[in-house]
Amino acid sequence: MENNEQQTELTASEISSLWTSYQNDTMLICGLRYFLKHVNNEDVQSILGQMLSISEQHKKKLTQIFNNENYPVPQGFLEKDVNLDAPRLFSDRIYVELMLQMGGFHMAIYGLALSQVERDDIIHFYSDALKESHEMNKKIKEIAKEQRLYVRYPQIPKAKQIDFVTNDRFLTGWFGDRRPLLGVEITALVLNARRNALGQAIITGFSQVAGSKEVRKYFEKGRDISSKQLDIFTSILRDDYISDGARILTSEVTNSTTPPFSDKLMMFLITTLIASGMGQYGTSMSLSPRHDLGVHYTRLIAEIAKYSNQGAHILINNGWMEQPPIAADRKNLAK
Predict the structure, then answer these.
(1) Fewest beta carbons less than 10 Å away: which of 18, 83, 161, 314?
(2) Residue 127 phi, psi dihedral angles, 5° rounding
(3) What is the pTM of this model?
(4) What is the rounded distance in angstroms from the CA atom of residue 84 to the CA atom of residue 151?
């Protein structure tokens, strides 16, 4: 059955998922190879090494699938996109936080891909990838806890009885007697605060080392946006006397100005984080009934969407944006 299925052409969802996975894994390989040149903690080094091995295995499997399908192997990211001789740019602490958040990101995208693919061999690939991501996420959390770098989400009181919403105060945001935050709203706010704290640190480092003046200015703008959005999320939590759970990480960036990565790779990573952020904001908005939170998320999505569009223009103008799998242009073919 499986061999017969492999004669079936890949669907749009399958080829798109595989193509995106190749881009992400080749980017990770470059990043992890550089991180391993500058890491102090042995446990962190071990996890980075395991993640590198998994990404290299993924690249090999994906290349084989593309070749079997007579589909061009994407370019992705190459050795020229990483400078292993560059001085250290980020601390071990940022490595840990990045791996924690990447773990959640991978479980989400592999889970989504798994729900959309149909052919047995592609199902097996993403089933294995999801299992690997789950195991790595568990190990990273254990290390973060051992290193006392893991910050737990805030706690809320235990309910004493079942209750029901009885008035519109449940939805009130800007005016009136505003209710306390729900558990799901707190979770979303903390997650978004943490993501912006990490994004602020990474883009601060990239702004120091970018080769192009245009790219450097773009990163500086992103640094300011992430700082402002971090303040918004933490202020909402603090209004309810709730810990934001986010740590400012810019002090964990060294003063190096030597680029460890190409401008292309750094731009790709930032635009990937932005896309993931917009998706997370949308999910957060859907889980937040309080009106003021919905307004915040709508405004913040618009702000980073505009920023993302500016980044896309930079990628296109520099010839850095590899075209994803695309449908036939039937109108043009008809001419």
Answers:
(1) 161
(2) -65, -45
(3) 0.91
(4) 31
